[in-house]
Design goal:
By secondary structure, chain A is α+β, with helices and mostly antiparallel strands. Helix content of chain A is 16%, strand content 41%. Classes of the chains: A alpha+beta, B alpha+beta. At the A-B interface, helix 1, helix 3, strand 5, strand 6 and strand 8 of A face helix 1, helix 2, helix 6, helix 7 and strand 18 of B.
Chain lengths: 407, 415
């Protein structure tokens, strides 16, 4: 797996246009404030409102370090996690904020053009196709490629409010097959490459529906202390529902389908623009799960009331990277580094280390490219990433970017 | 090199990675993987001795030795004696095949003192007496006429009976030793109450660091148990394991064990999930035909209850819970979380399940009330299953507070 991943990632670097990035690394004294003694005490030039990125990142680092430490201490105090204990979520989301603040600081220091806003920064495209690699290294087994189709139109309602509905369906392009490795198990071999018999085949489908409502909070409020120019904050509300259908064709007369539905009606979050190019976003909220199942030979799902699904959380740190000089090329290219943690616990992907199995959600590292012809209203966005986790792996996305409605 | 050429090279490399380079399941022996432990537990359920005798664990009702089942652990020691440890708490069978006049000594471990053990070819068995109330029996066999010799064990089945269970020994094996000692009192009390204590099943995490010395110490402790003990692996028993250590010391983690009218379904989910081949066998393993009670047992609770401490793959956990619901299991027993917690109404479809977490065998419980001990399950008629927590307090405890409002515990009334 690591060999496959390294080859794929190495190949993805070919997506970078020739010469891209050169402008970003060439010194450009015009864009760096000559009279600024400290990056933490200066507004980013030509950016309204004023932001002190150094200070903002220091605040973020301090806050998230406290969260991470608090989560660790909470876990250590009880040794185990109780219902709705937030310790693992605090460690995961806090860790991303802390790591992001560090990466963001380094990026801010080495960026010769300062931290002015990237004009056409990557975001969530209107339409996306996601492909996850399949294949199995076990003889007789198969793991299909996965395909996801997403729709995320963005509606700008006012200067401060926007809403982005979300729809996604993901499924395997074939059936997963597993073998029974007991040498004495009787039956026909799975195929002519192995003597092991087929244990089961599986189909799975996942559908996600939701929306993300964003509200830009006022930067300064009369009567309150000044915000210390620590960056804009957006308040977010992201209700959603996931439905996962899994059909197992075991060594029994009838297939069995299980539906796992997860409802997130109170998922609230905050996006903190610590610099015009860097953002920290997190969401947290309770979740309710329903398990429904069929009887053998029946397609009717037996449904019932929900059960406590625990505390869902996710955290992201994003860094925009301009790759072509603004207005000087026929096609502008911008990039974005994403570092995330998703405390999901539903997808079978967890960040495990040693005997710590299943406590944490996966870590995401991904990169987006956005390509836009000069003056064009639409753009193409290509992304590649990896879920650093047991059960995770790489993926690529191809997105079509349309103008925001109402902007 | 031009960019186009690089694209061609990359395309060819990716295509090459997508084909070939495959090997049979568990060819590389990574026993941290659940499916690899299925391979190991089946491997150690049979043995070919140095003098060419084939010894195999079989289903208790099996009459031919054509195949074998992962229902115990077999290994030949340096003295040429075959040590056989049935994994279950009740009936077992072992087949012995080889050329005429070959001899073999079998030392049985983990066999109840009240079990009737016989040895010999089908229809010509003789009894093997218990050795002073211990869990051991020694059998000398001389093969003849290439007939299969069978070693079989059966236990009497009372109207009412008990089982006890707990998991998570980890950092405090000394406390676990107190729990094993306490079993002697529990056996006497159960006998007096007319519901004999038939066995103890451990819910994983015997060790903290998957070290051989830790497994050795636990196995030594279990030799002083008055009743048979079955064992499951936990996440602390398998990490970084490239030598199938758990399987080598305790045998299988995926099997069913029928104790009187109760079927214990042992599921190894120490890796955060069960092996896909075991998942495929779940309908058969949970088949309630011929028994009154179903008790699935595993290390990591399949119902997470909002703790983030459930199985890695909640989709698979949902499938397991659905199978449990369909077959009407009586209790789901798990460890992993270091406290005692009961969920009497886990809703799965239109059914309700009853899950008990009993990670109380010695592992660190952090701050707050320490609760060490075992969960006692009492069985009677078809719908008669009772459960409670039997505490084995830490020495020095003067006032055992049974009023923990935050985490109410159903303590057992008597010993």
């Amino acid at each position: 797996m690591p060999r496959r991943l390294s080859v794929v990632l190495a190949c993805l670097f070919l997506l970078i246009p020739a010469g891209a990035g050169a402008s970003d690394f060439a010194p450009d004294p015009e864009l760096r404030p000559p009279d600024c003694p400290s990056i933490g005490r200066c507004c980013v030039r030509d950016t309204d409102p004023c932001v002190h990125p150094g200070l903002a990142r220091a605040l973020l680092a301090g806050t998230t370090a406290a969260f991470t430490l608090g989560g660790f201490m909470g876990f250590e105090a009880g040794d185990s996690l109780g219902p709705m204990h937030p310790w693992a979520q605090m460690m995961g989301v806090g860790g991303i904020g802390l790591l992001g603040a560090g990466i963001g600081t380094i990026r801010g220091l080495v960026s010769p053009r300062g931290e002015v806003r990237v004009v056409d920064r990557p975001g969530r495209p209107l339409f996306r196709l996601t492909i996850t690699p399949g294949g199995s290294s076990v003889l007789g087994e198969s793991s299909p490629y996965g395909l996801g189709v997403s729709l995320d139109p963005n509606f700008v309602l006012t200067d401060v409010f926007s809403i982005q509905p979300h729809f996604k369906v993901s499924f395997g392009l074939g059936r997963a097959t597993d073998v029974d490795p007991r040498p004495q198990a009787a039956g026909e071999p799975a195929d002519d490459t192995t003597t092991f018999t087929t244990a089961s085949t599986r189909d799975s489908v996942k559908v996600s529906v939701g929306a993300e409502l964003s509200w830009k909070l006022p930067y300064t409020s009369p009567g309150l202390l000044k915000p210390a120019y620590a960056g804009l904050v957006e308040f977010k509300y992201k209700p959603g529902v996931d439905v996962r259908l899994r059909t197992l064709h075991a060594d029994t007369p009838a297939e069995q389908t299980v539906e796992l539905t997860s409802l997130n009606p109170m998922l609230f979050g905050v996006r903190w623009h610590v610099s015009p190019r860097q953002r920290f976003t997190f969401f947290v909220g309770p979740r309710w799960n329903w398990i429904s199942f069929t009887d053998p030979g029946s397609s009717e799902l037996r449904r019932g009331p929900p059960q406590n699904g625990g505390l869902y959380a996710e955290g992201w740190y994003q860094v925009d990277v301009p790759l072509t000089p603004e207005g000087r090329k026929k096609t502008s290219v911008s990039g974005r580094l994403n570092l995330g943690y998703v405390h999901d616990k539903l997808s079978g992907v967890t960040f495990d280390t040693g005997a710590v199995i299943g406590f944490f959600g996966p870590i995401n590292v991904s990169w987006d490219f956005r390509f836009r012809r000069r003056g064009a209203p639409v753009a193409i966005q290509i992304s590649a990433g990896v879920w650093l986790s047991a059960g995770g792996g790489p993926y690529i996305e191809l997105g079509f970017v349309a103008p925001e409605v109402g902007s | 090199m031009s960019r186009s050429l690089l694209w061609i090279v990359c395309g060819a490399s990716v295509a090459a990675l997508g084909s070939g380079c495959s090997s049979p399941e568990c060819a590389w022996g990574d026993y941290e993987e659940a499916e690899c432990r299925v391979v190991a537990e089946n491997h150690y359920a049979r043995a070919l001795t140095s003098n060419g005798v084939e010894v195999r664990f079989q289903h208790p009702l099996e009459t031919t030795s054509d195949t074998w089942h992962a229902l115990g652990l077999l290994q030949e020691n340096q003295s040429g004696i075959v040590e056989a440890r049935p994994a279950g708490l009740a009936d077992f069978a072992i087949s012995v095949d080889g050329a005429a006049d070959l001899t073999l000594t079998v030392e049985l471990e983990n066999v109840a003192p009240d079990a009737t053990v016989t040895v010999g070819p089908e229809g010509a068995e003789v009894d093997v007496p218990a050795v002073g109330g211990t869990l051991r029996r020694t059998i000398a066999i001389t093969l003849a006429d290439e007939e299969t010799v069978w070693i079989r064990g059966t236990r009497p089945c009372p109207d009412r009976y008990r089982l006890v269970t707990a998991g998570d020994i980890q950092t405090n094996p000394l406390q676990f030793e107190r729990i094993v000692e306490d079993l002697h009192d529990q056996v006497a009390a159960a006998e007096a109450a007319g519901a004999p204590l038939l066995g103890f099943f451990i819910l994983g995490d015997l060790t903290e660091s998957t070290e051989i010395q830790e497994f050795e110490r636990i196995r030594q402790m279990l030799e002083s148990s008055p009743i048979p003990v079955s064992v499951l692996p936990g996440n602390h028993d398998i990490f970084g394991d490239e030598a199938a250590i758990f399987s080598r010391w305790f045998g299988p983690g995926n099997y069913t064990d029928t104790v009187c009218r109760t079927k214990l379904i042992h599921l190894d989910n120490a890796s955060g999930h069960i092996a896909e081949s075991v998942e495929a066998r779940l309908p058969q393993m949970l088949d309630p035909t011929g028994v009154d009670h179903l008790i699935p047992a595993m290390h990591i609770p399949p119902h997470e209850d909002g703790t983030s401490q459930g199985m890695r793959d909640q989709e698979q956990a949902s499938y397991m819970l659905a199978e449990f619901a369909r077959n009407g299991v009586d209790r789901i027993m798990a460890g992993h979380v270091h406290y005692w917690r009961e969920n009497v109404d886990v809703r799965v479809g239109d059914r309700s399940l009853h899950q008990i977490i009993s990670g109380t065998a010695g592992g660190n419980q952090g701050s707050g009330h320490l609760r060490f001990g075992v969960t006692r399950l009492s069985f009677g008629g078809p719908d008669d299953v009772e459960s409670c927590f039997h505490e084995v307090p830490v020495p020095g405890t003067t006032d055992v507070d049974h009023e923990d409002v935050a985490n109410p515990i159903d303590f057992c009334d008597g010993p």
